Batch of 3 targets.
Target 1
Amino acid sequence: MVFPKSLPILAACLGLGACGMLPGISDGDPADAARAEAEAPSAADGFISRVSTLELTVSTDAPGNEFRQVDQFTRYARVNCNIASQRDAGLETIVRKLRDEAAAGNADYLRIVGAGPFYNRGICDESQLQLSGTAYRRDTGGTSGQVGGSAASAPATDSLAGRLEELEALRDRGLINQNEYEQLRERVLDEAY
């Protein structure tokens, strides 16, 4: 008789479902899930604003045209990628490291590389989290000593080529996927022209 043997398993599943412990089964209001999703970006925004300083802005957005890229950093943290709280804490730790390194290089702006919400960024493989950031400095237009327009436009071209090469390197190393590469490439080209 199969039914009596499966009765304890069925009872346990019903008990776990009633407690909301089975994935996909919730005993609360469906609006709770929407509220939790709506609060997540604000938590990330709060963290980002807390790590920003008067001298250095930290953001997930690309800076405006008045900034030029000066460096790129990749840092790692040991975390259990399957536990969201550890992954989130690892991301926050890495962002602080990236911020400190960018500040040491006299950067004005640090962009956390990746696509999507902040807490979904980075690459988490088994027990290691990897996150990259790009440091920028406000361009003061220090071309006053150069003569002619071609000399002033050469660094912009070199900068554009360098940024595109960096994107290709990130894609080749697996730090960004093809879709992220294409989006970032379009953004770089839009900013240049």
Target 2
Amino acid sequence: MATATVRQDGDTLAFGGALERTAVATLWPQVRNASARILDLRAVQSVDSAGLALLAELCERLGIVEVIGEPTGLAELRAAYRLDRTLAFGS
């Protein structure tokens, strides 16, 4: 499994690797004060529930308007938690 990474590219936070429980504690300090409108997940290999929680919290805090990419596990978790494409709770 690839180490999870994040980088700021203008108005985009680009993630890579596996967004899983072991990575969340390392990534959170890097992103909690970020400023972005887009999350780019195209280089993410997989997401578990802890990774989804990180992404959903960022979407809420930052007002993310677009999430690009569909890594393994994201669609299933979005459906299970009834989240829309921007990881906000659907109605």
Target 3
Amino acid sequence: MKSFLISDNRDTWVGMRLAGINGIIIHEKDELLEALNAARKDEEIGLIIMTEKIVDLAKDEIMEFKLKVARPLIIEIPDRHGTMRSENAITNYIRESVGIRI
């Protein structure tokens, strides 16, 4: 299985390329949804890596995708400037996804 990066940041893209991960740089919501659908159709891609800013462009659509589609797995990473999320981001994600308060 391959990994694929969807980023808004050139530095993140270059870093991932150095690690052997292909990807694209985008800045618009429609480009993001197109890239997500194309990556989903590629049978070789098992992991989609997205920067936090990219996820924020289409948060609802990506959350729905995460909940309904088993493959590829989507993970969210900070860019080189660090995370924009609160320290309780994972707890909030679990609460939103599963409905369990931990």
